[in-house]
Design a protein that fits this description.
binds NADP nicotinamide-adenine-dinucleotide phosphate; Rossmann fold; six-stranded parallel β-sheet
Length: about 325
């Protein structure tokens, strides 16, 4: 079967398509034929080495498919079940995959393979960011960076459905309309304007309850500036570079802020947490709280292009890879 592998860290050129023998699932594992694979910014961190992983390695953390084979001690699933996942071991960019059964999630009717593969990692992330890293309430004012992106589409429209006032930043004129469509009440083009000044015009000085910052280095200081006293800074990504130091006195103490740097793994520690979170995501979509639209589809052989596009900020919403 075909699978994308990397032998060294680097640019998109290190992604190689290989023919490999997949082998047999272990006692508590299943073999899945992937129908649709999610493209995520974390795949870039793994490829580039920003998040170091043992090499050689596969790439990809999110896919939906059908179980073809089960190990001798598997009891949660059977052959033919439609499942999705957003977890280690890395290697979703593959025609087939072997995964531990306890990382898998049943996909309900009404959710297509393509949608499932774009809302498992991003949807669960949106769920924990909105409900558990911070418990978003009606009327809260939020700032989300890169509001026309993959997670941006899901999180901003969900936050809007929860009754928050949503301010989104985007990097280009073309993305402004997309962010509005994603549920942002106000959109700021941070390539053209200082977003701190623009946020102040909308909600006043120190007016934001919670910032969701996945852009990182470029936006961190400004994000802190927009927050209210005792506001919440959720730093959850590094599209522009990793924020590895904070100045407690200046950044946190000055306004008594709360700060968290979470990962999806911290909010899906137990199987119960994983299933409960996925259930909330599926329910939100099936009850039409918000809609997910795939922005672009790539074939497995074109993943290098997919990475180039994602890094060049060309994608406007969740994108998938068809094996
Ligand atoms: N911690 C977690 O659990 C978790 C889980 C999922 C995702 N994430 C993080 O969430 C963020 C969004 O993920 P995603 O997969 O949905 O990606 P995405 O938002 O579709 O793409 C990243 C966006 O970041 C913006 N950006 C700003 N500066 C950039 C730069 N120098 N290079 C590239 N992009 C830049 C771009 O939007 P503009 O052009 O509008 O600026 C770009 O479209 C990422 O940081 C990701 O790591 C974290």
């Amino acid at each position: 079967m075909k699978s994308i592998k990397i032998e060294k860290f680097g640019g998109p050129e290190v992604l190689e398509i290989k023919d490999i023998e997949i082998g047999k699932p272990g006692p508590k594992e299943v073999l899945i034929k992937n129908n649709s694979i999610g493209l995520n910014f974390i795949d870039i961190y793994h490829r580039s080495g920003l998040y170091p992983i043992p090499l050689p390695s596969g790439i990809g953390l999110e896919a939906c498919g059908i179980i073809e084979e089960i190990g001798s001690e598997v009891n949660l699933f059977k052959v033919g079940d439609r499942v999705t996942h957003a977890s280690m071991p890395i290697g979703a960019y593959s025609e087939k995959q072997i995964l531990p059964e306890d990382k898998l999630i049943f996909v309900p009717d009404g959710i297509s393979d393509e949608i499932a593969s774009s809302i498992t990692l991003k949807g669960i992330t949106a769920e924990y960011l909105l409900h558990r890293a911070y418990n978003l309430k009606k009327g809260d004012k939020i700032l989300y960076h890169a509001a026309a992106g993959g997670l941006g589409q899901i999180l901003c429209s969900w936050a809007n459905a929860l009754g928050a006032e949503v301010i989104g930043t985007v990097g280009s004129k073309a993305k402004e309309e997309i962010a509005k469509k994603n549920g942002c009440h106000h959109v700021i083009n941070y390539s053209e304007k200082n977003f701190v000044d623009e946020v102040e015009k909308i909600v006043g000085k120190n007016g934001i309850d919670v910032v969701y910052d996945g852009v990182g280095q470029k936006t961190f200081k400004g994000s802190i500036e927009t927050l209210r006293i005792r506001g919440m800074m959720v730093a959850f990504g590094n599209a522009s570079g990793y924020v590895d130091t904070i100045d407690v006195k200046k950044d946190i103490n000055a306004k008594g802020l709360f700060f968290t740097r979470p990962s999806i793994a911290h909010y899906t520690v137990t199987r119960e947490e994983l299933i409960e979170s996925a259930k909330k995501v599926f329910e939100a979509i099936l009850s039409k709280k918000f809609k997910v639209e795939i922005s672009k589809k790539y074939f497995l052989k074109d993943v290098a292009q997919a990475h180039k596009d994602l890094e060049a900020r060309l994608l406007t919403g969740p994108a998938i890879i068809i094996p």
